[in-house]
Amino acid sequence: MKRVFSGVQPTGNIHLGNYLGALKQFVELQEDYQCLYCIVDMHAITVPQDPKELRKHILDVAALYLAVGVDPEKSIVFVQSDVPGHAELGWILTCSSYTGELSRMTQFKSKSKNKESAPTGLFSYPVLMAADILLYDTDVVPVGTDQKQHIELCRDLAIRVNNTKKKTFVVPEGRYLKAGARIMSLDDPSKKMSKSAENIHSRISLLDEPSKIKKSIMKATTDSEGVIRFDVDEKPGISNLLNMYSVLSNKTIDDVVGMYEGKGYGDFKKDLVEITVEALKPIKERFDDIRESEELIKILKSGAERANAISEKTMARVKENFGLGLK
Ligand code: AMP
Ligand code: TRP
């Protein structure tokens, strides 16, 4: 069975972009692949974290995975720092990477902009992400398109090691959805919807109350033309809302545009509120049950054991091919 790996950072505010770009794919892929879904806490500490908050967010993301439909009987759900192979392989791959290629990562460039010095972890973060993926001989990585450059780096590192040492790694492919792969901020559709934006109305968090969802969507930036049509360059706000509507209702964008011919933004937004509230309601209900249950910790412990067993095999091969340690 081919293997899938993906991860989400436990930094709170998991939003509709995370759901439509990544989590929705996680659920679909479980039927046909062996899936590993990780809570990447070691990525989260590339920026300062409060220890208590971090622990809470780890369990929140784990509960959300399950609430959106990840099935722990089918998929391996675990916390990154519970499997030592991630850090171990991260270092080994760091030694196969170049500062030049890492300085070209747009995420690093934007996060370190206007700073004289940036944390080293922020700089080498894509190498740790490559280690996450390569550790499990992953074939497919479901992510949003903001991660494309990191996936390309992962492929480059795998190919480089395979060419300079013995064949060591499976070279993975990224998997991006056509719609949903990049959900934009509601208040500024030139930016991607993000967990860290200050304005809470820029995003819809998966656990938002209906009244908050309504407020954020009704306030969303549009344009003055008043016509509902898809045009990312000229009408980025409406196009983003159309994108959300389309994925949440499983209708094509053309169909949705057809439904709102001759109607105004107000009607369209009201319906989008309803669809969004309906889609998130069962997730929130399941989340509340799972987050409080003792089962959650058991699932994560058993997930870590299963992930560790796979990673140890890869690490034995890596060490052999690099000449590390005793035989
Ligand atoms: P992160 O929030 O950076 O941990 O991202 C977790 C997953 O959500 C990754 O697969 C991202 O590519 C995806 N993602 C994050 N923001 C968005 C967005 N605005 N639109 C679509 N996917 C996103
Ligand atoms: N870098 C990803 C993000 O910010 C999270 C991540 C870490 C990840 N390791 C990964 C995603 C491995 C896919 C595969 O969204």
Describe the structure.
There is one protein chain. This protein has 327 residues and is mainly α. Helices cover 54% and strands 7% of the residues. Strands 1-2-3 form a three-stranded parallel beta sheet. Helix 1 links the parallel strand 1 and strand 2. Helix 3 crosses helix 12 and helix 7 crosses helix 8. The longest helix is centred in the C-terminal third of the chain and has 28 residues. The model has no long low-confidence stretch (mean pLDDT 95). The protein binds adenosine monophosphate and tryptophan.
Question: Which terms summarize this structure?
Answer:
single chain, mainly alpha, 54% helix, 327 residues, globular, 13 helices, two-stranded parallel ribbon, binds tryptophan
